[in-house]
Amino acid sequence: MHQLQVNPDGSEHLEYTMTGLPVRISTNRLRIFQDYAAACHWHDDFEILSASDGEMDYFVNSKKIHLKKGDGIFVNARRLHYGYSEKKQDCEYRFVVFHPSMLGGYALVQEAISRFTRDDQPDYWHLDASSEGMLTFHSMYAAAEAGDALKVLSHGADLLNVLRDTKANPSLGESSEEWMLLRRMTGHIQGHYDETITLAEIAAVGAVCRSRCCALFREYLGTTPMEYVTRYRLDKACSLLREGKNVTEAALACGFHGSSYFAEVFKRTWHITPRDYQKSFHQQTLQE
């Protein structure tokens, strides 16, 4: 069985791409996701993203933001978010994810970061292509690609300083308690999607009844708790298929009890079989 790396609060621990630093960079396209939308998720890390080729939309704690080509968004730590396309059009995007611990364990630094990430602080910053924040992002991405740890650290600190002095979207304020409940429940799903998960279990994690649990998911995420579970599992399975795992391996690693059921759910959702999805992805990759 595939073993997950899980944080103490139940959220999934990200796989970083830099040796020795908690930093992940990647370039992706929206077309790899069902309906051109990633699964809603959260993590303890900061995330900054740029729409490098095309336009896309972004969801952060119930707010919807449209990104034009070259625009970007910085998402504060522990905020529910995902990228998507309202018009169901493809877009290439690149991102940097980095954990606050990257900036060091000094008490004053961690205190400043703690203030920056509080629930009453901005959920996100919408950055235009020519802004200082986006220029810093591109420098940070290039430094991470080159494996230059000192420059990555420097650009990460610069980025937070720039954002601290930049007007941003306000936090959710009065509804933050509900988002904390959702964060707790979705975090449990992120940390246990390879196991059997029930509605009662999800509700118990949020210390709410099942009907309240369903109402929160429907109101803020536009889905039911169990639909969220299936969607999150499918997104993770798609990632494994793109990495070359076979159908059975992807199914079992993502909580599906058997490849036949997985294939049935996958085709009902994607209108294509897992094997055909895998073939199509590798053919498109070769063409590019």
Describe the structure.
This protein is α+β, with helices and mostly antiparallel strands and about 290 residues long. It folds into two domains: about 25-165, Jelly Rolls, CATH 2.60.120.280; about 175-285, Arc Repressor Mutant, subunit A. The protein has ten helices and eight strands. Strands 1-7-2-5-8 form a five-stranded antiparallel sheet, with helices on one face. Strands 4-3-6 form a three-stranded antiparallel sheet, with no helix packed on it. Helix 2 (about 130-145) runs antiparallel to helix 3, helix 5 (about 200-205) packs across helix 6 (about 210-220) and helix 7 (about 225-240) runs antiparallel to helix 8 (about 245-255).
* Neighbour order of strands in the largest sheet: 1-7-2-5-8
Unreliable parts: none
CATH architecture of the largest domain: Sandwich
| Main sheet makeup | 5 strands, antiparallel
Class of the largest domain, according to the CATH hierarchy?
Mainly Beta
Total helical segments: 10
Average pLDDT confidence is 90
CATH superfamily of the largest domain: Regulatory protein AraC
- Proportion of β residues? 15-25%
Q: Structural class of the secondary elements?
A: alpha+beta
Succession of helices and strands: EEEEEEEHEHHHHHHHHH
